Amino acid sequence: MSRTSKVVLGLSVLLTAATVAGVHVKQQWDRQRLRDGVIRDIERQIRKKENIRLLGEQIILTEQLEAEREKTLLAKGSQKS
């Protein structure tokens, strides 16, 4: 084989190996990104459930507070009369 053909063959092998390695790395990166997306979705769902639970508690506490205020106002109103 001539020197030129050896260089061309070497470059072709090197470029092919680099392409295969690059595709492999990109596939691994894509898979990891998909896994991370699923994990983020699960965490988001958990936070949403927690926020809904806290909102329910706040609604109950607000209703209790408003009822207490109304009782206090009624009690003060009947004391003045």
Outline:
By secondary structure, the protein is mostly helical. It is 96% helix and 0% strand.
- The gyration radius over C-alpha positions equals 35 Å
Q: Between the first and last Cα atoms, what is the distance in angstroms?
A: 116 Å
Overall structural class, as computed from helix and strand content, comes to mainly alpha
Q: Residue ranges: pLDDT <50 for 5 or more in a row?
A: none
Q: Mean pLDDT across all residues, rounded?
A: 94
Helix content: over 70%
Q: Total number of β-strand segments? A: 0
What can you tell me about this protein's structure?
The chain is mostly helical and 81 residues long. Helix content is 96%, strand content 0%. It is built from one helix and no strands. The protein has one helix at residues 3-80. The chain starts with a helix and ends with a helix.
Q: Which labels suit this protein?
A:
81 residues, mainly alpha, 1 helix, 0% strand, rod-shaped
